[in-house]
Amino acid sequence: MSTNLTSGEQQSWVDTPPINPPIRHFFGELVENQSWLETLATPFQNWLHALYGKQDGPAYKVKDAIDGTWLGHPLHPVLVTIPLGAWTCTTVLDLFSLGSEDAALERGADATLWIGLVGALGAIPTGVTQWSDIDGPDRRVGLFHGLLNGGITMLNITSGILR
């Protein structure tokens, strides 16, 4: 959740400034209203809290490291750029290789696919750890984000195996 600087009240991700395009608001509201996500979120978040333990425990120090407290910024947004950029390159290289006899394009697409998967290995635990402290409607948005990106990762794993 973010804080409204003028009134101090909590805002949902959907309503955060500086720009709130109508399409973002529509999809944000749609996801926030999916109450079935709570049936997944509550036990998973409770399990994560039990796993990380109390703030002074050694497991919680691991949580802080995964979360990026040593960096002064959450680590997930940093690491997620790896699969995002790599898989974008994979798509472009795959499109250029259509109807082409250039094996270098195919090898490049294969390489960027696997680079993205390696990056996802870092993005997933950092995202889950960052999500573990979120509550309210943003918890549903974060869980949906994770489920969607987990599905995308599984599709890319399948693509890598089939290549």
Write a brief caption for the model.
The chain is an all-alpha fold.
Global outline: globular
Radius of gyration: 19 Å
Q: What oligomerization state is this entry in?
A: single chain
String of helices and strands:
EEHHHHHHH
Helical content stands at 55-70%
Q: What is the average of the pLDDT values?
A: 89
Biggest sheet: strands, sense, closure?
Answer: 2 strands, antiparallel
Instruction: Report, as a whole number of angstroms, the end-to-end distance.
Output: 41 Å
What order do the strands of the largest sheet run in, or round the barrel if closed? 1-2
Structural class: mainly alpha
Spans of at least 5 consecutive residues with low confidence: 1-5
Query: Beta-sheet strand percentage?
Result: under 5%
Strands, total number: 2
Number of helices, where a helix is a run of at least 4 consecutive DSSP H or I residues: 7
